[in-house]
Design brief:
By secondary structure, the protein is an alpha/beta fold. About 25% of the residues lie in helices and about 25% in strands.
């Protein structure tokens, strides 16, 4: 089922597939690419932990390229920024949004990667998370619709049932910048959980892909 979060009925909707925590699973990616083609997806967002402890992986980005889909991605705790940058160097239709933002039609998308956990991206500093989100948001602050992407989950949300505390800085950014949608992963068992922080719909997309329109 496709969720429609579009409040501007007269504008063309963008169909987005978001997922996280692929961990080098090429079979999962193949299924996701087939679904993206079948569902006429405009944009794919990969919310971190694309690899398993930075091990070399094949056929993780290329299936989306073969069907001409634009991919936005950032690192989780299992890989570093350099790994994500290497993907964007190999595949021209990709963009690393860690500390950056992009515009797609009337949507501004901004984000920050990393999360507490094992791996090269597994040490985060709360103040740096907020600073990166603030910086990336600045360039799309006038966008009529906004999506915030992180790997780590916000503090005080249902994903904390895992016993792993969420980020206070990520929650602060949601409350301050009020994106229409915030997506994240990291906690596999929480994949598919959707809730609200103020007017923002937040979705844990960890290994549980979500398709929505905005």
């Amino acid at each position: 089922m496709t969720k429609n979060f579009d409040m501007e009925k007269n504008q063309k909707k963008t169909r987005i597939l978001a997922v996280g925590d692929i961990h080098g699973d090429s079979r999962l990616v193949k299924k996701l690419a087939e679904k993206a083609e079948r569902e006429n997806i405009d944009l794919v967002i990969l919310a971190g932990d694309i690899t398993f402890l930075d091990n070399e992986v094949k056929n993780i980005i290329s299936p989306f390229m073969k069907i001409n889909k634009k991919v936005l991605l950032l690192h989780g705790n299992h890989e570093g920024v350099a790994t994500i940058d290497s993907f964007t160097e190999i595949y021209p239709n990709t963009k690393n949004i860690h500390g950056y933002s992009v515009r797609h039609n009337n949507i501004g998308i901004f984000g920050v990667g990393g999360a507490d956990g094992p791996g090269p991206g597994g040490t985060v500093i709360e103040s740096e998370l907020f600073s990166a989100l603030k910086q990336s948001h600045e360039y799309i602050k006038d966008a009529s619709k906004k999506i915030m992407v992180t790997h780590m989950h916000p503090a005080g949300t249902k994903s904390e049932f895992s016993g792993i505390e969420g980020s206070k800085s990520i929650r602060k950014a949601i409350e301050k910048f009020q994106p229409n949608i915030a997506i994240f992963g990291h906690i596999h068992e929480a994949g598919g959980i959707e809730e609200k922080i103020g007017n923002t719909t937040i979705i844990n997309v960890s290994r549980k892909e979500t398709i929505f329109e905005l």
